[in-house]
Structure formats: C-alpha cells, structure tokens
Amino acid sequence: MKKNKSIILGKYGAIVVVLLLFAVLIFISAAKIAFPSDTREEWRREGRRQTVREGRIILPKRGNIYTHDGRLLAASEPSYIITMDFWADGIVKDSILNHIDALSASLARKFPDRTATQYRNLMMGGWQTREREEQQIAAGNNVRKSRGSARIISRDINYADLKEIRSCPALNQSTLRNGLIAQERSSRVTPFNNLASRTIGNVFADLEKGGSSGLELRFDSLLRGENGVKDRQRIQGRWRDVIITPAKNGYDIITTLDAGIQDIAERSLRDMLIETNAESGTAIVMEVKTGAIRAITNLDRVRSGIYAEGSPNAFSWMHEPGSTFKTVAAMIALEDGVVQTTDSFLVGNGVWVRNNRLTVTDWDARRVNRGHYTLQRGMEMSSNVVMAKMLLQGYSDNPEKFVAGIDRIGLNDTSLVWDVPLRGREGSAFVRRPGDGFWSNATSLGVMSYGYETQIPPIRMLMFYNAIANNGKMIQPFIAQRIARDGRTIKEFSARVVNPNIFQKRTTREQIHEMLVGVVESGTATSIKSPYFDIAGKTGTAQLANRSGYGAGHFVSFAGYFPADNPEYTIFVGIRNPSGIPSGARHSGMVFKNIAEQIFVRENRLTVDHVRVDTTLATDPRLKNGKWQHNRALLSSLRMPVGNVAEASDWVRMQRDSVGNHQPRALAVETGVIPDVRGMGARDALYLLEKSGLRVNLDGSGRVISQTLSPGSRLARGATIGITLR
Q1: Among 242, 241, 239, 243, which Cα is nearest to 228's?
Q2: Are residues 590 and 647 in the same domain?
Q3: What share of the chain has pLDDT > 70, as a percent?
Q4: 82, 165 in Cβ contact below 8 A?
Q5: One domain, residues 299 and 367
Q6: What's the CA gap between 310 and 302, in Å, rounded?
Q7: Which residue, 161, 221, 559, 624, shows the most beta carbons closer than 10 Å to its own?
Q8: CA count, 13 A, side-chain hemisphere, 21
C-alpha cells in the first residue's frame, strides 16, 4: 500500500513539476511581450505589413476648361471598360443561353457599333472557349486558362450607360453570377465635341501623363492638380482607405472663347472649304477693346469634303501674307511723310518694269489702261504698282527707315508669348532687312510693299488690324482669361499692351480707316458689303513658296473689323489653295461676311427698317427637307407642282425652281460623317441622327435651323449633338 502511495506521489510530483515549467514559460513569454526586446518592433512591423498597405497615390481630378460664360469645353469624368468574365464562379450556361437573344438585342439598341448577331456571337464565343478549356482540364491536360473574357462594349462608357447595362437581361445580377466587369478609369470629355478642339488641345490616354497639346498642355501644371497619399488598412476584416494627405484637384481655366461665335466661325469656314475643296483654313474673331479671342478655328482637309482641326494654322502659317500687308506699308509711308493719300501714281495697264530687274504686275493687268491712281484708290483696288512705286520713291535711299517703321509698330515684337504651345518659329514674325544675305536693293523693297519677303502669321495680322480698329492701341490677343478653383478666381488675365499707339500722327488712323472702308465700298471687296453695317478691311492674295520658287499654290485672306464706324470685332480669315481662281474677297471675304452678319444678328435686335419685302414669297406651304417618300406623298395629295424628280434620292433637300415647282435635290448621307439635318422636321432629324449613332438634344419645334456638330465633319458614335428648331 505504501509502495503504491509513493508511486502515486511521484507521478503527481512529476505532473506538478511539468505544470510549473509551463507556468514559468508563460511568465517568461508574457515578460518578453510586456517589456522591450529586440524582436518586439520586428513583430509590430510584420503585423503592420499584414494589415496596412502604405503610400498609395490618390489621383486628383483634372481641372475643367470653360468658355468665358461658363459653358464646359473640357472636363474629366469616370469612364468604364466593360468586359465579361466567363470563368466567374456563379455563371452557368443556362443563364447565358436563356437570355442571350434579349441581351444581344438590348446591347445593339444601346450601342449600335455591333449588331445583335455580333453581340451574340461574341458572348457565345467566350462561353465556348471556357467549355473547351474545361474539357481539356478534365482530360488531365495542362491548360492555362484564358479566363474566357471578352470586351463586350468596344468603347469606354460613362456611369449612366453602366447603370443601363446593369439593367439588361442576365446582367441585372451580381458580378459572380453574370461575369460583368466594369473597370473604372478617368477620361477627358469635351461636351462640344470637336469645337475649337485644336485650341483646347488633348490629353494622353493615361491622364497621369497630362496634356499633349493646346491649352491642355500649356496649362498642364495647373490643370493636373497635386497627388494625395492614402493607406489601405484592414479593419474588422475589410480593407478601408485611410487618407494621409488629400489630393488637391486641378485649377479650372476659363477661356475667352464664346461657344456660339466659335460654332459660327467653324461652320462658315468649313462650308467655304468644302465648296472650294481648299487645302486648309483659319478664322479668328477678336473683341476689339479687350483683345479677347471669341473664336479661333483651324481646319485641315482630311479627305475630300472632310475637314478637321489639325495644325494651329493661326500661329503656324509662317508664309508671306500678301496684300493685307499693304495696309502696313501705307501706314508707315504716311507716318514718315513720304506720301499723301492724294498723291498720284501712273498705273497704266497694270504692269511696271523697273531697271529690267523688278517687274510688278497688278491682279487685273493688261485688261484696260487705268491711267493714274491715288494712294487711296490704289489701296481700294489693291494695286501692286501703286504700292511698289510708293515705297521705292520714298525709301530707295534709306530702306532701313521703312523696316524701322515695322519695328516701331510692334508687329514683329519678339517678346510675345501665346496661350497655346508652339514649335520653333511658329507665332513669330520675320521681316527681310537691308544687309542680310538675301536683301536686294533692286527688288526687296518693291515686293515687300505688297506682302512678300516677310513672314507674318495670321494671329499677328489680326493684332495689327485690331490696333487700327482700337484707335491705335495694339494689344496682344489672348485666350486664357481666368484661373479658378471651386468657383473662386485665383488669377485673372488681360491683354498685354504691345504698343499704346501705333500712330504717330493723329490723322493717319482716319486715313487708313477710310482706305479700308473704301476697299469694301468701292474696291476689291464690294461683293461682301452688308445691308446691316459697314465693314472695313483688306483683301489679300499671295503665292505660296516652295524650294523651287512660287509654285505651291495660293493663300487668300481678308482682315478687317465691323461695324466700321464703331468697331466691336476684328476678324481674320485665311484659306490655302482654294480651287478655281483665288480671291481674297470671294473666298475669305465671304467667310468674314457670314461670320460678321451672324454675330450681328445674334447680338442685336433687327428693326423694322432692316426687314425687306420678299418678292419671292409663295402662298404654298414650305416643305421640309427629309425623306423623299414623305414629301412626294404630300405633294401628290395637295396636287402641288413638282419639278424634275430625277435628282431625288432617299433623303432630299426641298427647293423651289424659277417657275415655282417644288424641286427635290439629293441630300448625301454618308457613313461616318455628320449628316446635314438643317431644314428637316424633328421626326426625320431624330431618325437620321440616332441611326448614325449620335445622341440628340432637341430644343424648340418646327424645322431644324442649326446643329451643334457641323455637317460633313467626322462622326464619333455616342457623341451628343444639339439641334434647334423654330
């Protein structure tokens, strides 16, 4: 018994000893945790690594670009790449097969880039890829899953489109069950689409890289904002963002541009370029007193009949201006007292040869012997002979004095910095000078009088003519008006004064003004006279140079201001290589007139005196443009006279011929091109635009009088177009 007791006590003692050892170990471990040790911080760091992701970047929202009256030109918004993952855990074949036809039809209606059949084939192809891979895996083959995913929508979509997609059949379930993946990213949108797109500029596809051209590049450091910092921390089993340093959104840029005037300028220029099949063109509208550019458009021919913003022509056209420079020459000569407006010059038949070295020819040479022209008449008729004789008689002994006059004006001021980024010499001026390697005492001064041996871009010619309109005060045209954040102005810009008064004599401004008015009233630009206001300006036609001489075509231009008696706007229009006989008045001048009159009607109310009786007014109803079959049925039911229907097509423009017949003219409707719906009713316009893949904002009733996207320009599916009906 005693023996058993001692055995039990021995075992009990051993257990006690073991327990005591465990207790000691527990106390030692607790002490290590409670008191500093070499490993404590290491474990803390490990715990943080497991629960915190430090130093994540918070991207700021890029600032917006606005018109002067607060209309949005460029903004950042989230967009989504839509794909479908056919390896999603909950997706089953039945959910695809049961809904695929309805889903394909819904997607085709919403996103017409693909047909319903193409959407169906795309999704079935993704599912079949998964099935093939599953069979190979079941057979023991080593197959790398392709994930069986496909991009369902070919372009990025916005949040409103995403919500609509998630309401479609089979996609209105959780992501695990439908496989729909929406990858968010930030994108740059332009509500007015291509309006002033070259001036506004572009950003890189990756917004973090910032602007790539235009105002987006010029003010990139302000627009992009400042990155923030956040940590991703695991709290109660979920990852949450902990903001360390908040991102600072970019500043907004408020420009001087006016969306309405910009649209007028673009449409007027584009229509003339299409009509003449010209190579390219530019039009700039500047407010006289402030220097604010209200519109600037640069269009280059992409293909026949299609024009788009490409190069910054207003700044980059570094070629000879032609006869618009005659105003500069006449002004300097008058200022220097070497000529008077009444001085007379022999023009004869319009050809003058000097010393067998210089031959000067007028645009109407050899047609008639014109005898003598005064300087006033020489300017009105754009006589090269008058201008060359004037400069050579006044400055042959001292040509440096004439060049000094150009410097005095400020036309070639080298310190000007423009609001859009340029390359090399773009935006600068070049004037040939006595003593340089290419100056000729026999010819340079003569040809310079009518705009050769100088290189002055359109923006500087605009600046010069605006100085005349502004009573001699030359100010630099500008586009960026204000920098703002959260609606609060941070910095405001105004036009830099280049020269407080380009005129040394008080009378010179009036003399030059009278010459420019005379050009339109009785000179080379009588075709652009307006019944609403007087125009002052100068036509220009110059040959374009290439490496072998002057064989690169023609540059036609018109620079001027209106109303002539109280100028509000200065406009420069330039067109390169129009077809037919080049004409500064008929081509560029007509664009000037169209822009000026539309601005005038937009900003002024017409009085009864402006309204003239329309002797062509007909009692028959005016038919709308649109579907020919609808108009044909109406004409037949009303027994109205119809002209030659051979010119009709599916879509027509309705006109009246000389005898009163209703005449259908074919209206071209091309794939990938913005259709012309002006003159149509709401039904036909909506059908044609939405069929082209555009979204339509409709305002008013009646017939379409204007559309925000220019007819004939390139079409971007999903873009929004506004139409106004009256």
Answers
A1: 243
A2: no
A3: 89
A4: yes
A5: yes
A6: 9
A7: 559
A8: 6
- The answer to whether the beta carbons of residues 568 and 287 sit under 8 Å apart is yes
CA distances from 449 to 9, 203, 205, 432, 711 (A): 128, 43, 48, 12, 40
Q: 685: exposed, middle or buried (C-beta count within 10 Å: 0-12, 13-18, 19+)?
A: buried
Q: In this predicted model, what pLDDT tens digit does every residue of 92-111 receive, in sequence order? A: 666 666 777 888 888 888 88
Confidence at 28, pLDDT banded by 50, 70, 90: confident
Residue 319 and residue 209 share a domain: no
Question: What HEC string does 322-382 produce?
Answer: HHHHHHHHHHHHHHHCCCCCCCEEECCCCEEEECCCEEEECCCCCCCCCCEEEHHHHHHCC
Please report which helix (H) or strand (E) contains residue 133, including its range: helix 116-138
Among residues 606, 641, 671, which one ends one of the domains? 606
pLDDT tens, position by position, 479-507: 999 999 988 999 999 999 999 999 999 89
Identify the helix (H) or strand (E) that includes residue 162.
helix 159-165
Q: Which helix (H) or strand (E) holds 306?
A: strand 306-309
From residue 110, alpha-carbon distances to 113, 152, 465, 647 in Å are 9, 12, 51, 35
Report if residue 299 sits inside a domain: yes
What lies within 8 Å, CB to CB, of 62 at 6+ separation is 76, 186, 188, 203, 207, 223, 224, 225, 249, 250
| Nearest Cα to Cα of residue 458 among 301, 613, 630, 282 | 282
Tokens of 505: 């004599």
**Residue ranges making up the domain that contains 114:** 65-225
pLDDT for 640 = 84
Model pTM?
Answer: 0.73
Q: Is 190 left (phi over 0), alpha (psi -120 to 50) or beta?
A: beta
Look up tokens 């170990």; give the residue. Answer: 25
The residues pairing with 283 across neighbouring beta strands, listed in sequence order, are: 297, 573
The rounded distance, in Å, linking the Cα atoms of 464 and 653 is: 43
For residues 448 and 333, membership in a common domain is answered with: yes
Pairwise CA distance, residues 442 & 182, whole Å: 72
- CA 310 and chain centroid, separation: 9
Report in angstroms the alpha-carbon separations of 522 from 65, 382, 536, 549, 566: 44, 11, 11, 34, 20
Question: Which residues make beta-bridge pairs with 255?
Answer: 480
User: DSSP secondary-structure letter at 450?
Assistant: T
- The CATH number linked to 504 is 3.40.710.10
Strands (DSSP E) found in 132-279: 149-151, 180-189, 228-235, 238-245, 252-255
Q: Provide the domain count of the chain.
A: 4
Is 685 in the same domain as 706? yes
Cα–Cα distance, 612 to 603 (Å, whole number): 20
Confirm whether 307 is domain-assigned.
Answer: yes
Residue 46's pLDDT is 65
The last residue of a domain, from among 186, 203, 225: 225
The predicted structure's pLDDT at residue 43: 62
